[in-house]
Amino acid sequence: MNLPNALTLSRIFLTPLLVVILLTRIDGKEIYGDLIFVVAALTDYFDGYFARKRNQVTTLGKLLDPIADKLLVCSAFISLVELKLAPAWMVVIIVGREFAVSGIRSIAASLGHVMPANWFGKTKMVVQIFAILVLIVADTYKEHWLLFGRILLWVTMAVSLMSAVSYLITFMKLQRQPRIVWKEENEQETSQEKVVS
Predict the structure, then answer these.
(1) Among 8, 56, 104, 151, which residue's Cβ finds the most Cβ atoms within 10 Å?
(2) Which residues, in sequence order, are CB contacts of 192 under 8 Å at separation 6+?
């Protein structure tokens, strides 16, 4: 356990607290909800920052970080559907994109290819954060914030789809690249490098 992994775990633990706050009718819940979401979103930045700066990149961190991100964002969007602030069909597309891209990256990793986050993916995350923050406030101040939140939701869905297409194109390009495997030959127990497609 190190600081980056602790920050990632804190994001996971903050997620159910966010859902409880959003779905419980208490005074000032939009303030508490936005505050919790901002803190959780900031841990996403700082866990990566400290992991690189302190050279504390671990297998556990690589596993938990994307899980924590998707758990936070998907829980927030599903809560907004329950509050009737976001159409369910739009959230299904946004959440479906998260799982589809995770699947593509997992398959690529199993084939020995690395698919780092691209510009579309980073932009999607930023737009998602702003859309969720605005829609949380809109639950209390609908006349002022709901329209703006819905516009951001449309932008989020569009960027999510473009991001998914970009990852799919990258994956297809990687599929055409040769990869190197090791193969034992005969009974001499010698390994030979072999290129396969």
Answers:
(1) 8
(2) 182, 183, 184, 185
C-alpha to C-alpha distance for 23 and 139, rounded to whole angstroms? 11
How far is CA 106 from its chain centroid? 14
Mean pLDDT by 10 residues, the chain (197 residues): 85 94 87 93 86 79 83 94 94 92 84 76 89 93 89 94 90 73 46 40
Distance in angstroms (rounded) separating the CA atoms of residues 134 and 150: 9
Distances in Å between the alpha carbon of 163 and those of 5, 7, 100, 126, 157? 27, 26, 11, 13, 10
Please, what is the angle between helix 29-53 and helix 59-82, to 10°?
A: 160
Spatial neighbors of 8 by CB under 8 A, at least 6 apart, are 43, 47, 61, 64, 65, 68
Q: How does DSSP classify residue 196?
A: E
pTM of the model: 0.82
Q: In the structure encoding, which two tokens stand for residue 2, read together?
A: 């190190």
Report the candidate in 50, 35, 45, 44 with the shortest Cα–Cα distance to residue 9. 44
DSSP per-residue codes, 26-51: -TTHHHHHHHHHHHHHHHHHHHHHHH
Beta bridge partners of 190: 185
Nearest to 102 by CA among 153, 65, 150, 139: 65
